[in-house]
């Protein structure tokens, strides 16, 4: 504790503002446990950049921790580019303090002689990714904590390709940041280097989104959509994109339309949570809508709900939505004629069904670690290949490569195209999903996510993952384990034959078991939240659509059995 107090006392110098010093002095004198939480570590970059609770301290998001990031990034950009003019673009979402923190970040860049394009108001993360290349920038920053609770904020870094930073840039930037003291931050802005942007970039982004996400679906004028932005940024883009694409019947949930970092109408602004879309689903039932769409605060994730076989609105999971959008894109590419260089992609914890689809269509399948930065890296690493589309189980999807991160704006339009097209042809989104199960196998997934906050929580997560690795299960629901994939050691081992294979992906704290019947269980810590996640996937053959309900019940029972076996 003495070392923590000593670290906190370094924030009592004249470099720090009076309000910060006052709060730290109060914590030193009155709240040692809270002081410990705020100073026991430095915030680090994870799969989605830096994300944390706002407040004073090294383990918090504030002007100093973000200022240090920005100073380190400025130094790195200068090392890479020398005397070249360096340009960055900055966006921010609806969260508390995002606007003021974005100005601080802009000022630090400008103080270092770097040209800054700063969005004049909140904008979506996909528009930021798009703007990096549209404006010819060397880097981009978005201030967001995605779907985290209201007390969080974050800082995501994008490179010149529009994708999030990946090795080796991430490690080199982190090393640069860690070499600095807070007193190295240059806060004195050069306002001449800060340019406000808005409508010109908006127009280009809307045009690109409609171009990439619209496929001439019939019946758009009568296709009824209920849309909620969950108090986030997508209100600035999705209604306009749907309108331009020809959708004439979009009902916006007005109670959730105003951007608000407090997210007053939901417990969590996460479209993965059924409760987040409850208000929109109720409206859809009231007006007889065909589809519900909800997005997270920075508009990179989308949740959709459609009418099931009984005519009730049902929330789909990210795997189901991804499968449907990918098949639709594959069909459209097939109609034009494959060129032989196309690929689709997903992540190691997402449904194996996507790989089966790739095989069926004869296109290449690539798999990545969790986090869309790895899918963006694929596009950069294989410039002669054409990315059709891809996503991950956590409600993220990317259509083509004009945006290099998950993009709920264009994906929303694509989902509506899929559903409107199905309805116009006498089917439905849900019925087409069942057809996918018949064609490629009925894969069903379940996610268990356990929140463990604070220092003790971090230790608990570490221990749970250690136990999962050191005490391997022999079988899952009667099916023997065949493969254990350890991404920490980049090794996959067949526990029945002893065969070992190298995993050609960067090291990551992920462990996956695969059984004889194709059941998969993965465990990993979240890169952006104090959570440990367990992903379960199982499958069965679906011979005909009429057997859907009975096979679905069997798979549900099997997934519940897995949860019980793992004591989750």
Kindly describe this structure.
This protein is α/β, with parallel strands linked by helices and 568 residues long. It has 17 helices and 24 strands. Strands 17, 18, 19, 20, 21, 22, 23 and 24 form an eight-stranded antiparallel β-sheet that branches. Helix 1 crosses helix 3, helix 4 (63-81) runs parallel beside helix 5 and helix 11 (318-336) packs parallel to helix 12 (353-361). The longest helix has 19 residues, at 63-81. The model has no long low-confidence stretch (mean pLDDT 95).
Summarize the structure.
The protein contains 17 helices and 24 strands. The chain is an alpha/beta fold and 568 residues long.
Overall spatial form: globular
Number of helices: 17
Main sheet summary = 8 strands, antiparallel
Class from helix and strand fractions:
alpha/beta
- Our Rg estimate from Cα atoms comes to 24 Å
Outline the low-pLDDT stretches.
Answer: none
Helical proportion?
A: 25-40%
- Distance linking N and C termini: 34 Å
Percentage of residues in strands = 15-25%
Number of strands: 24
Which terms summarize this structure?
single chain, 568 residues, alpha/beta, eight-stranded antiparallel β-sheet, seven-stranded mixed β-sheet, globular
Q: Which secondary structure elements does this structure contain, and how are they paired or packed?
A:
Blueprint: H1 2-9, H2 18-30, H3 32-39, E1 45-46, E2 49-53, H4 63-81, E3 87-92, H5 98-111, E4 115-119, H6 125-134, E5 139-143, E6 152-159, H7 169-178, E7 194-197, H8 199-213, E8 225-228, H9 238-244, E9 250-252, H10 278-287, E10 291-295, E11 302-307, E12 313-315, H11 318-336, E13 342-347, H12 353-361, E14 364-368, H13 372-381, E15 386-392, E16 396-399, H14 408-424, H15 429-440, E17 442-451, H16 454-470, E18 475-476, E19 479-486, E20 491-494, E21 500-502, E22 511-515, E23 520-525, E24 531-540, H17 548-565
Parallel strand pairs: 3-4, 3-5, 4-7, 8-9, 8-10, 13-14, 13-15
Antiparallel strand pairs: 1-2, 2-6, 5-6, 10-11, 11-12, 15-16, 17-24, 18-19, 19-20, 19-22, 20-21, 22-23, 23-24
């Amino acid at each position: 504790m003495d070392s923590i107090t000593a670290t906190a006392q370094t924030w009592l110098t004249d470099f720090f503002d009076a309000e910060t010093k006052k709060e730290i002095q109060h914590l030193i004198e009155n709240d040692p446990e809270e002081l410990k939480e705020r100073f026991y570590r430095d915030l680090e970059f994870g799969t989605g950049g830096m994300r944390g609770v706002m407040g004073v301290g090294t383990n918090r998001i504030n002007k100093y921790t973000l200022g240090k990031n920005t100073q380190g990034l400025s130094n790195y950009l200068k090392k890479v580019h020398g005397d070249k003019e360096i340009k960055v673009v900055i966006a921010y979402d609806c969260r508390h303090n995002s606007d003021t923190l974005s100005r601080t970040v802009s000022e630090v860049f400008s103080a270092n002689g770097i040209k800054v394009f700063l969005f004049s108001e909140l904008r979506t993360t996909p528009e930021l990714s798009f703007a990096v290349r549209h404006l010819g920038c060397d880097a981009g920053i978005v201030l967001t904590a995605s779907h985290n609770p209201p007390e969080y904020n974050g800082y995501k870094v994008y490179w010149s390709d529009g994708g999030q930073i990946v090795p080796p840039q991430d490690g080199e930037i982190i090393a640069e940041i860690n070499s600095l003291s807070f007193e190295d931050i240059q806060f004195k802005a050069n306002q001449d280097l800060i340019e406000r942007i808005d409508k010109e970039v908006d127009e280009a982004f809307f045009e690109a989104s409609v171009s990439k996400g619209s496929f001439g679906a019939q019946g758009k004028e009568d296709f009824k959509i209920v849309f909620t932005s969950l108090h986030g940024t997508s209100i600035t883009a999705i209604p306009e994109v749907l309108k331009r694409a020809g959708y004439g019947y979009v009902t916006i949930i007005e109670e959730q339309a105003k951007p608000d970092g407090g997210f007053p109408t939901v417990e969590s602004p996460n479209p993965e949570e059924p409760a987040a879309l409850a208000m929109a689903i109720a409206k859809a039932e009231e007006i007889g809508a065909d589809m519900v769409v909800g997005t997270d605060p920075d508009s990179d994730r989308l949740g959709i709900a459609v009418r099931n076989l009984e005519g009730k609105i049902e929330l789909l999971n990210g795997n189901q939505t991804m499968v449907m959008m990918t098949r639709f894109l594959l069909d459209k590419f097939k109609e034009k004629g494959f060129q032989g260089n196309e690929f689709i992609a997903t992540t190691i914890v997402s449904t194996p069904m996507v790989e089966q689809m790739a095989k069926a269509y004869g296109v290449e399948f690539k798999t990545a670690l969790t986090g869309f930065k790895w899918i963006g890296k694929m596009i950069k690493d294989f410039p002669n290949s054409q990315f059709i589309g891809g996503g991950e189980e956590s409600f993220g999807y990317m259509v083509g490569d004009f945006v290099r991160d998950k993009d709920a704006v264009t994906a929303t339009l694509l989902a509506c195209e899929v559903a409107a097209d199905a309805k116009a042809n006498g089917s439905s989104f849900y019925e087409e999903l069942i057809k996918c199960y018949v064609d490629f196998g009925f894969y069903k997934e379940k996610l268990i996510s356990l929140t463990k906050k604070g220092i003790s929580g971090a230790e608990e997560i570490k221990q749970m993952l250690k136990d999962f690795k050191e005490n391997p299960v022999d079988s899952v629901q009667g099916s023997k384990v065949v493969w254990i994939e350890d991404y920490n050691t980049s090794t996959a081992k067949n526990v029945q034959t002893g065969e070992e294979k190298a995993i050609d992906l960067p090291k990551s704290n992920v462990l996956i078991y695969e059984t004889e019947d194709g059941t998969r269980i993965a465990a990993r810590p979240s890169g952006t939240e104090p959570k440990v996640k367990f992903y379960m996937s199982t499958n069965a053959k679906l011979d005909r659509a009429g057997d859907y309900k009975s096979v679905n019940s069997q798979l549900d029972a099997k997934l519940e059995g897995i949860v019980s076996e793992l004591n989750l």
